[in-house]
Amino acid sequence: MTTTHSTANGSLNGKVALVTGGSRGIGAATAVRLAREGADVALTYVNGKEAAEDVVRRVEAFGRRAVALRADSADPAEAAGAVERTAEALGGLDVLVNNAGVGVLGPLEGLSLTDVDRVLAVNVRGVFLTSQAAAARMPSGGRIITIGTCMTQRVPGPGGTLYATSKSALIGLTKALARELGSRGITANIVHPGPTDTDMNPADGPYAPAQAEMTALGRFGTADEVASTVAYLAGADYVTGAEFAVDGGHAA
Question: Residue 182: which of 244, 243, 238, 136 has the closest Cα?
Fold first, then answer.
């Protein structure tokens, strides 16, 4: 006998969500939180097939449908194609969470053209193409939510030039999408996480104490704390073109 969990409030009952880069970290937490709110969820991954399948099982534990799709956001066809594959598997698309991203940090003079092309392909072009494909399919009430970074608000030290550049572009994209899609009842917002405890940047890692000290709260955030803001925006009707800092006061 299969036991399912009830949703928190059912605010997303009947909705279909796509979370790019949903196999771990903030993406995985977001996929599970949206399922808890009642959504069926598709998630993309590149290398983490086993982790992605585990997230699928966690979504299904809430009685929701789920599918893991291998799609590299650096590939234009795969970035846009994830939307169509989601719609085919789950019957439509109501919520897009642009979470997939890469971070290349280091001195400006040490960044190669390969680094630049990869970061911009995933963090900017991939987000644009996935959003474009989603906008073409979404009904009124659609939601486009993009994961940015606290480094668009405050860059606390050297080494973040390329990453901050790529994520800053998403602010302009979000505001423009809000204007372009508002008449159709589709919203677009961006969430800026601060230092967040994930396997890529653990709260007990060697660089964690210095990062925690940069926040007003003096600690790392959790992936669930970011996911809760995404879930709020997925259910919010009168919020668009806005930036939400979930950064513990990093930008304060």
Answer: 238
> Could you tell me the two tokens for 217?
């709260």
Residue 7, pLDDT score: 38
| Residues 33, 61 contacting (CB under 8 angstroms) | no
| Residue 113: Cβ within 10 Å count | 7
Element (H, E) at 231: helix 223-235
E strands, 194-250, in order: 196-197, 221-222, 243-246
DSSP letters for 10-78: -TTTT-EEEETTTTSHHHHHHHHHHHHTT-EEEEEESS-HHHHHHHHHHHHTTT--EEEEE--TTSHHH
Q: Which of 249, 89, 28 shows the shortest CA–CA distance to 81?
A: 89
CA gap 13, 104 in Å, rounded: 38
| Residue range 54-85, pLDDT digits in tens | 999 999 999 999 999 999 999 999 999 999 99
pTM of the model: 0.94
Is the pLDDT at 31 greater than 80, yes or no? yes
Sign of CA dihedral 132, 49, 148, 146: positive
Domains in the chain (CATH in brackets) are 16-246 (3.40.50.720)
Catalytic residues: 163
